[in-house]
Amino acid sequence: MKSKVAVSIYVFNFLEVGNKIEELVQAGVDWIHVDIMDGNFVNNYALCQKFCQDIKAKYPNILIDAHLMCIEPQRYIESFANAKTDNFNFHYEAVTNKNEANILQIIQDIKANKMKAVIAINPETNPQVLKPFLDQVDGVMCMSIKPGFNGQQLNDMVYDNIIWLAEYKKVNNLNFFIQVDGGVRENTYLKLKQSGAEVLVVGAFVNVPNNELKTQINKIEN
Ligand code: DX5
Ligand code: ZN
């Protein structure tokens, strides 16, 4: 089964990240996952709108998947749209007012700003809370780790979350893509794909010498 690779550039040495992106593009990667952390929703900081904009300026055909680990993500919709972000990927847990109408409004605003709306959930969040939004979002991202830090081991709960979403999508004939982020490794990627993950965010998995990059990408995409 084919899946798509989205590379999390946060895992690379920042002094080398420009070269790394070039290597990734040469190897055929066309989704770049940019981790945004506000030091509040998670106990860490990372990246920003300017980063998305700078990548897009150099590589207009690359899809920028901004993963906002930020409280009240709706505050940033416009600025990420201005930075030419493609996917606005926000956490359900980070929205304080979880009223259905409020979350639907956020999704509408993202789309009105010409971005794809992707809603993310932590491994412990029951995906069924997303039911009211699944015919509206473009994608759902299942975290398989606690957000905020790369290099963690995958939490097994993610498999059931993916399986439930894949089944719900099929039964209801919906179009959202299913994405997974964190802990994609040699011993996890196959089961994630088999469970129904269509986009796999990879960090450590592709933090390899340039000549091994294609092999790693092929494992997921072919
Ligand atoms: C963590 C980030 C992930 C992370 C993935 O908060 O959302 O994108 O960088 O790294 P790996 O694939 O190494 O677990
Ligand atoms: Zn991420």
From TrEMBL:
SUPFAM superfamilies for this protein: Ribulose-phoshate binding barrel
Pfam families listed in its UniProt record: Ribul_P_3_epim
Keywords: Carbohydrate metabolism, Iron, Isomerase, Manganese, Metal-binding, Zinc
GO BP annotations, alphabetical order: carbohydrate derivative metabolic process; carbohydrate metabolic process; generation of precursor metabolites and energy; nicotinamide nucleotide metabolic process; purine nucleotide metabolic process
Molecular function as annotated in GO: metal ion binding; racemase and epimerase activity, acting on carbohydrates and derivatives
Highest taxon of the lineage: Bacteria
Record bears the keyword Isomerase: yes
Cofactor(s) essential for the protein: Zn(2+); Fe(2+); Mn(2+)
Subunit comment: Homodimer.
Full protein name: Ribulose-phosphate 3-epimerase
Organism expressing this protein natively: Williamsoniiplasma luminosum
